Hints:
This protein is an alpha/beta fold.
Amino acid sequence: MLYSLIRPAIFTLDAERAHGLAIKALKALPRGRPAPLKGPLGTEVAGIRFPNPVGMAAGFDKDAEVADALLGRGFGFVEVGSITPLPQPGNPKPRLFRLKEDRAVINRMGFNNRGAEAAAVRVASRGTRPGVLGINIGANKDSADRIADYAAMTRIMAPYATYLAVNISSPNTPGLRALQDEGALVELLDSVLEARGAQGPPVFLKVAPDLQNADVDAITSIAMDKALGALIVANTTISRPELVSVHKGETGGLSGAPLKPLALEMVRAFRKASGGAIPLVGVGGIATAEDAWERIRAGACLVQLYSAMTYRGPNIARQITKGLSKLMKRDGFASIADAVGSEEV
Length: 345
C-alpha cells in the first residue's frame, strides 16, 4: 500500500535514475533475514536447497551490491549480474524505458557493470552468510574471444556462487545470441564446465524466448548431455506484441506483462522437449502468485521476476510466496516439487 502511494513520484524520475535510487535504498535498509530453508515452499533443484521458488532475476543487481538485502525481502534466491570480465559502460543513454500502460519495460542496457574484479570483492565479502546466490556471467562487447570471457568469468566467480548462470540470450550485445547455435553452444559449455572444475557449482543456461522448435530441441539435448543444472527460460524478447505505451517503439528487450504468454509457452516447449529431465527456471511476465503457480504447473521448478517489482514494489516476493502457499493447499499439493509440470496430468 505504501509503495502504491509513492510510485507516482518515483515514476516522474528517469527509469535508470529510479533504479539507482532503489539500489541505494536497499543498501540503507536493515538487511533482514533470509527465508527459512525448512519452510513449506522449500524445494531442491540441481542439488541446491531453495527456501522458496521465487527469485530475483539478473539485471536488477548488476554489480552484486544488494543480494543480501533482497534475500531479506523474502526472495528465495537472488541472481546478480550480468557481470563481464572487464568493466563496461553499456549502451548510450537513455536505455531503460517504462511502458506504464503495458506494465512492461524495454531495456537496451548492454551489460553495463563495473567488472569482475570489483564484483568478486563484494561477493567474497559475504563470507558464510546464508542464502542462495546465483551469479550471471557474460562477455565483454568488444572481446576478441567471447568463449574465453565466459571461461574466465567461471574461474573468477565459481568460488562464490551457489550456481553460475551463463547468459547468452541478451539481445543488447551484438552477436551474443549466436552462441545459442548448436556448435557454438557445445564449445562454450565445454569451456565453462572445464573452467568450473568437478567440484564447482551447478551451471544454469539462460536462453532467449525467441526460439524455433528446432532450437528448443537442440538446446535441450545439449543441456542434458552436458548435465547442466537448469535452463532459465527466458530472457527479454525482441518481438513486439501489441503495445500502447509511448515508448513501444524503442529498441531493446521487452520484459514484463506482455512477455508472459511467450515465456509461458517456452517453458512448456522445453518441458516437452526434455520430458521433465532437466529443471527449468521460469521468468518473464511473472507478477502475481497466480502467474508463478501457472509457470510451476507448466514445468518450472523455480521462477524469477524483475520488471514486476517496478510496478508492485519491494515486498512482491513476500506477496507471491504467501499466495503460493494458499494455491498449493487449494490444489492439494504437498510440495512445490509435486506441482511441477502437473498441468500435463
